[in-house]
Amino acid sequence: MKLLLLDAEHCLGHALGGLCQSRGDIELTALQDASVSVDTLAHERPDMVLIPPLGRPADVDPGLVLSHAAAVETVLESCLATGVPLLWCVSDQIFEQGSARPIEESAIPAPYDEALRRMVAIGDMIRARLPEHFILRIGPLFGLTGRDAWLAEVLTALERGETLRAAEDGIICPASVDALAMALIGMLLQQQHGARAWGAYHFAGVEPVSPFTFLSVVRHQLETRLHGLSVAIEPGQVLPLHHHHDEPLRRILNCRRALETFGIHQKPWRVEIDRMLELWCTEHHGGGEARS
Predict the structure, then answer these.
(1) Which reaction does it catalyse (predicted)?
(2) What is the 3 state secondary structure string of the chain?
(3) What is the pLDDT of residues 182-209, one digit of tens each?
C-alpha cells in the first residue's frame, strides 16, 4: 500500500514514518507541504492521501484554522481530479460545546466559532463530493517528536521549572500519536483488502480526564523517574484553571464504530505516558530501558 502524507513535520508524520520503516507492506511518501497539486498527486498515484490534524484549533489564531481549511479544500480538489481517496484527521475541538453524553461518530459538529464552522463546511464538502474518504476525529494528541507533540512541550516546560496551567473543569480523552499511527495503518490495510467502510470514525484514549489531572499525572511520573535516576531537577508546578462555571465541558468521543468495523481498540493514555516517559528519560538523562 502506498500512502502520501502531507505536513510531514507534524507529530503524526513522525509516528507514521517510524512505524512504516519497520514494515514491508507500506510505502510512505511524506511531503512538507500542507496541500498537494493535481500534477503531484497524478505523478505519485498513492492509494491514500493523509492529512494530519490541526492541533488545538479552538485555541489558535483563527487565521491558522482558515489556512488549514483552505489547504484541505485544495487537497480535496486534487483527489477529485485524480480519483485518489482522502483521510483527514480532525481535532475533537471541532465539537466546540462538547456533549453531556459520549459523542457518536454519526454526529455532525455545529460550532459557534466562524473558523471552526469553516472546517465543518470542508467536512461536508468531502462527504458530499468524495465517496472514498475517511474523516477521523481524534482526542488531544500527545507524543515526543514533531509539531503539536503536546507531551514533549509539557516535559520540556516542566524540566525548565515553568508553571503550567490547565483546565480542571473540562473532560477529554487524550490519545497517543503512536497509537493513532498504528490504528490508521490497521484501518487502511483492512480497507485495501475489501472492508469498503468509508466515512467518519473516532479515535481517543481510554479514561476521560481533565487536562489538569492529565498534566498532574505527567508531572508526578516525571518527578518519580528523575528522582530514581538521581537527576537534580525539580519539575515546575501544575495549577488548575476554571473556565466553565456551571458544569464541566465534556469532549468524550464514542469510538464504537472504529472498534466494531476495524477492531481498533483504544489505548489507555496512562500506559502510553509511562512508555513515553521511559523513552524521554533514556534520551535526555541516560536512564532506564526503552520499550517499543
Answers:
(1) dTDP-beta-L-rhamnose + NADP(+) = dTDP-4-dehydro-beta-L-rhamnose + NADPH + H(+)
(2) CEEEECCCCEHHHHHHHHHHHCCCCCEEEECCCCCCCHHHHHHHCCCEEEECCCCCCCCCCHHHHHHHHHHHHHHHHHHHHHCCCEEEEEEHHHCCCCCCCCECCCCCCCCCCHHHHHHHHHHHHHHHHCCCEEEEEECCEECCCCECCHHHHHHHHHHCCCCEEEECCEEECCEEHHHHHHHHHHHHHHHHHHHCCCEEEEECCECCECHHHHHHHHHHHHHHHHHHCCCCCCCCCEEEECCCCCCCEECCECCHHHHHHHCCCCCEHHHHHHHHHHHHHHHHHCCCCCCC
(3) 999 999 999 999 888 999 999 999 999 9
Question: Chunked in runs of 10, what are the mean pLDDT values of the chain (292 residues)?
Answer: 96 95 91 96 96 95 97 98 98 95 94 96 97 97 96 97 95 96 95 92 96 98 95 95 81 96 94 96 75 38
Domains contained in the chain, CATH given: 2-209+242-286 (3.40.50.720)
